[in-house]
Amino acid sequence: YTEAWDADKTSIHVMPDTPTILLAKANAANVSHKLYIQAWEDAKKKGYDMRADAIPIRSAKASRDIASDYKYKETHEKEKGHYIGCRTAQEDPKLSWAARAMKLQNDRIYRKAYHDSKAQVHIPVDAMSVQAAKECQTLVSDVDYRHYLHQWTCLPDQNDVIHARKAYDLQSDNVYKSDLEWLRGIGWLTEGSVDVVKAKKAQELLNERLYRTRPDEMKFTSITDAPDVVQAKINALQLSDV
């Protein structure tokens, strides 16, 4: 696959003054880090003499100190004289505004008027809201909702009382199930019932031992010269580390 390319590599020759080669060399010179820092390296080799008391060094230090002091005191110089003439904090507009904002944000002061006036509210007893609340309380009250019936006293031999007792006996659950009392305590074997037979059939269908036959229980003789056995032996020899 690479024989033709290897043969062409030894026979192809590109002239060094072609535009593509010249452009590549120019690009290499532009992106070269060594050429980029060549002037700096040459300057470092020549050496320099810079003393601590040189004029540029002293000028730079003085400029730095002046700029630092100016930036440090810039805010102070701008605010200087703004507070002159305020004898108290109440006369200062900024302090007054800050105190007002603090009072508005104070929850205790915000609710002070409500706490002072909540005990001084007087509601007349015949107000519409009070009457409506009473009506609603009457409607939802369990005591007013239930009115127990009057306990009548009847003679035990009255016809309606005897008829009511017979009706109660017919409707009573104890009387309804009294004919089954003779079955209480009698044992019953469930063997052969429909549910038991159905459960056994389901167990047989789900039994793994009856559904599958284990390979070690099957009697068979493997043929040593079968194609699949021979192929398996060849694969084992090819994959063997030994």
UniProtKB/TrEMBL annotation:
<keyword id="KW-0009">Actin-binding</keyword>
<dbReference type="InterPro" id="IPR000900">
    <property type="entry name" value="Nebulin_repeat"/>
</dbReference>
<dbReference type="GO" id="GO:0071691">
    <property type="term" value="P:cardiac muscle thin filament assembly"/>
</dbReference>
<keyword id="KW-0677">Repeat</keyword>
<dbReference type="Pfam" id="PF00880">
    <property type="entry name" value="Nebulin"/>
</dbReference>
<dbReference type="GO" id="GO:0030018">
    <property type="term" value="C:Z disc"/>
</dbReference>
<protein>
    <submittedName>
        <fullName>NEBU protein</fullName>
    </submittedName>
</protein>
<dbReference type="InterPro" id="IPR055297">
    <property type="entry name" value="NEBU/NEBL"/>
</dbReference>
<dbReference type="GO" id="GO:0051015">
    <property type="term" value="F:actin filament binding"/>
</dbReference>
<dbReference type="InterPro" id="IPR013998">
    <property type="entry name" value="Nebulin-like"/>
</dbReference>
